[in-house]
Write a structure and sequence with these properties.
CATH superfamily of the largest domain: P-loop containing nucleotide triphosphate hydrolases
Largest sheet: 5 strands, parallel
Strand content: 15-25%
CATH class of the largest domain: Alpha Beta
CATH architecture of the largest domain: 3-Layer(aba) Sandwich
CATH topology of the largest domain: Rossmann fold
Number of strands: 19
Strand order of the largest sheet: 12-15-18-11-19
Number of helices: 22
Number of domains: 2
Helix content: 25-40%
Structural class: alpha/beta
Shape: elongated
Length: 514
């Protein structure tokens, strides 16, 4: 009888718990049993591994009773990431490679029938979780594509292998390995290095006019505030939203790694977008599960894929009520917890919400270009699709009027994104120096301690909140917006002018009872 142990990792949210692949060969009727709470795609590894070993010219132990255990047994395992560890365990148990040399290494990779290694999702998340555990010095073998992702983590020891034989040659018994390893071109140790930062996306200079909406975008970007754009069709709401991510302050390496790790979990990581804030724009038919995540095992939803970036919801009232209400908790906490009977997964969800909507079903309420066909009852019902608690959590409500053709053609190009981004970055830096976080993240007593309201501004805000019937949350959010306006102006104290401008950004829509 022979036993081999190979180390790998599972995925559970952004966590990557360790998995020991135990392979046991014993005399008896030939069989291949795989245990350890494996999903269907993991159980299919039996056929992939069998064909890969045979086609690579290696010996599959056909005349043995094979038992593969993925420990711990109560941890769900999915995907083809365990193909490579299972194959190496079979080879070590049968004496074709040195089992002792596998100790201290971790492996993940899907095998093709020819033995080629295919990428697996979540490689960056795996390396990031390993580094968080203090195990960044543990060498990990990954396929092409996955290895380059994982190598972005500082201090990670990542080795890229293209074929099963490349890994086998590296772990042959010592006397043979020295001769074979010289021409092992498919094996490469990758040095941790960041991919080049991607260029910013569409430029704000493409948008003509809309000075009020452009100002609101600048305030939202500087303070991390949510934004609701209200206007008729064709007024430029989507153009403004698509350019919002290019105004945000640069990401830190830690933020970029966490954002890219979530994208890696969903198989959407693109090296060309490294250090660029993501924008998720789901269709209005998206369900609550599509937005917040779910499934078995749990996968991140659109709000997590927008982590450290922008979640753009066009046709805001057309989303299902359940989907919109599911946004309320992550807008406050910056995290989403997906709980199932058998497991629980936490995903980060610090995103900036940018929503766009028409003011009424026909879209032309208040327009100077076309008459609205909707009755007051229809307008009220349409706007009531957005609950009061949800609207309360969106800091800025901005009207985006449609420009007449002559105004549009005569308008000069607007200010480019670069100078706006410079002002946003400076204001964001002031907030970080003062309180260590963006203004939108202030909570409780921090709001009063950091706002630095003068007496006149405080009295003005109290009067406005009373007359407009704001909730305590709405009042605090207006105060945080005023703090951001003061930061953009380079003012230490929040004055009446800053509060007055902030008040104007909460008067486009009146919150319906929720």
């Amino acid at each position: 009888m022979s036993l081999a142990l190979v180390q790998s990792r599972a995925l559970l949210g952004l966590a990557a718990p360790a998995v020991t692949v135990e392979v046991h060969l014993a005399p008896g009727l030939p069989s291949f049993t795989l245990v350890g709470l494996a999903e269907v795609e993991v159980k299919e590894a039996r056929e992939r591994v069998r064909s890969a070993l045979t086609n690579a010219g290696l010996e599959f132990p056909h005349n043995k009773r094979i038992t593969v255990n993925l420990a711990p047994a109560d941890l769900p395992k999915d995907s083809g990431r365990f193909d490579l560890p299972i194959a190496l365990g079979l080879l070590a148990a049968s004496g074709q490679i040195d089992a002792a040399r596998l100790a201290g290494w971790e492996f993940a990779g899907e095998l093709s029938l020819s033995g080629q290694l295919r990428p697996v999702r979540g490689a960056l998340a795996t390396a990031l979780a390993l580094a968080a555990e203090g195990g960044a010095a543990v060498p990990m073998v990954l396929p092409p594509g996955s290895a380059e992702e994982a190598a972005l983590v500082p201090g990670a020891r990542i080795h890229r292998a293209r074929h099963l034989l490349d890994v086998v040659r590296r772990f042959l018994p010592e006397p043979v390995q020295k001769e074979e390893d010289d021409d092992n071109d498919g094996w490469q140790a990758l040095r941790p290095q960041a991919a080049p930062a991607a260029a910013h996306g569409p430029d704000l200079a493409d948008v003509k006019g809309q000075a009020g909406a452009r100002r609101a975008l600048e305030i939202a970007a500087a303070g991390g505030h949510g934004l609701l754009l209200v206007g008729p069709p064709g007024s430029g709401k989507s153009m403004l939203a698509q350019r919002f991510a290019g105004l945000l302050p640069p990401m830190s390496v830690g933020q970029a790694l966490e954002s890219a790790a979530v994208a890696s979990l969903a198989g959407r990581f693109e090296p060309g977008r490294w250090m660029q804030r993501p924008t998720a724009a789901p269709h209005h038919s998206a369900s609550a599960v599509a937005l917040v995540g779910g499934g078995s095992p749990p996968r991140p939803g659109e709000i997590s894929l927008a982590h450290e970036g922008v979640l753009f919801l066009d046709e805001f009232p057309e989303f299902a009520r359940s989907a919109l209400e599911a946004l309320r908790e992550p807008l406050e906490s910056g995290r989403i917890t997906i709980a199932r009977a058998a497991q629980r997964a936490d995903f980060p969800a610090r995103f900036q919400l940018v929503a766009a909507m028409n003011p009424c079903p026909c879209g032309f309420a208040g327009s100077r270009q076309r008459a609205c066909r909707c009755s007051p009852e229809q307008v009220a019902r349409y706007q009531a699709r957005l609950s009061g608690p949800l609207l309360d959590r969106i800091d800025l409500h901005v009207e985006v009027p449609a420009l007449a053709p002559e105004e549009l053609l005569a308008a000069p190009p607007g200010e480019a994104s670069a100078p706006v981004r410079t002002r946003v970055t400076a204001a964001h830096a002031r907030a970080l120096a003062r309180q260590g976080k963006a203004n939108q993240a202030l909570a409780g007593q921090e709001i009063d301690q950091r706002a630095h309201l003068d007496d006149a501004a405080r009295a003005f805000l109290q009067t406005a909140a009373a007359r407009l019937g704001w909730s305590a949350r709405g009042t605090h959010r207006a105060l945080k917006v005023a703090r951001t306006i003061a930061d953009l102006a380079g003012s230490e104290a929040v004055g009446v002018a800053h509060v007055a401008e902030a008040v104007q950004y909460r008067r486009v829509l009146r919150a319906a009872p929720g």
